[in-house]
Amino acid sequence: MLAERPFQTLLKREVLRFMRVWMQTIAPTLGTALLYLTVFGIALGTRIEEINGIPYLEYILPGIALMNVVTGSYMNTSSSVFDAKRERYIDEILISPMSDMQITLAYTLGGTLRGVIVGFGVFCVGIPFVGVSIQNPALLILIGILSAFIFSALGVAVGALSNRIDHISLMTNVVIQPLAFLGGVFYSVDMLPSGLRVATFFNPIFHTVDAARYATLGVSDLNPYPAVGIVFLLAALAFGGAWLAISKGPHLRV
């Protein structure tokens, strides 16, 4: 399936789509990450010196990287699928000799790659700035790929189901960004009141951030291995939802 030419062509298109304008799709993310590290790390770091024995700047780096992975992968696929739908060149994709699953996978992998590149870039920029060493690189790579895959698939679903560009930005501003800020990026869940602590456990971004923090620093708010299992489950559910949206989405086939 992955070796078929139509699949490879669509995947290549999705990669070139963001790589050709990397000054708009990748570079600003690295500047934003440095801004977060400067504002939150230095301003709050003078008041919150350590969390769970980890210097505050080091503690927030994995969460900032994952937050950018989430937003980058989601925006890549949601805008791409919606533009294809709006400009009607989705018709050529749908009548190509690709199954709905192949179409979904090509879009999702393209967005996943952008998310992984963004996350890698944030770590490259942040590690010299913060001075952290990664405890488990293999686990961190796995979590980064799965997190990007989850929200890339979510972007495919939203792009396929949206009728207006406002729906994509609404999802970003009302759902994803609040979940990211409430996902333990800048704090430990142990610092929250019990009610908010329980609510945080239902936040999917929290599980990706917590697993990435464990892989990077060796500390976590939850048992890390069940958290990794939850991330795998979320990836399967997100891809299933994206596949269904490509198959049944409104106004995709006219």
First CA to last CA: what distance? 27 Å
Helix content: over 70%
The tally of helices reads: 11
Total number of beta strands:
2
Specify the structural class. Answer: mainly alpha
Question: How much is the radius of gyration in Å?
Answer: 18 Å
Strand content: under 5%
What is the global morphology? elongated
- What series of H and E elements makes up the topology? HHHEEHHHHHHHH
Main beta sheet strand tally, sense and closure: 2 strands, antiparallel
Provide the spatial order of strands within the biggest beta sheet. Answer: 1-2
Q: Low-confidence segments, ≥5 residues, pLDDT <50?
A: none
Number of domains: 1
Whole-number mean pLDDT: 87
Question: Could you provide a short overview of the structure?
Answer:
With about 250 residues, the chain is mainly α. It is about 75% helix and about 0% strand. The protein is built from 11 helices and 2 strands; from the N terminus they run αααββαααααααα.
Explain how this protein is built.
This protein has helices at residues 5-19, 22-25, 27-45, 56-87, 90-94, 100-130, 137-161, 165-181, 194-200, 204-217, 224-248; strands spanning 50-51, 54-55. It is mainly α. The protein has one domain. It has a two-stranded antiparallel ribbon. Helix 4 packs antiparallel against helix 8, helix 6 packs across helix 7 and helix 7 (137-161) packs parallel to helix 11 (224-248). The chain is elongated. The model has no long low-confidence stretch (mean pLDDT 87).
Topology of helices and strands:
Blueprint: H1 5-19, H2 22-25, H3 27-45, E1 50-51, E2 54-55, H4 56-87, H5 90-94, H6 100-130, H7 137-161, H8 165-181, H9 194-200, H10 204-217, H11 224-248
Antiparallel strand pairs: 1-2
Helix pairs in contact: 1-6, 3-4, 3-6, 4-6, 4-7, 4-8, 4-10, 6-7, 6-11, 7-10, 7-11, 10-11
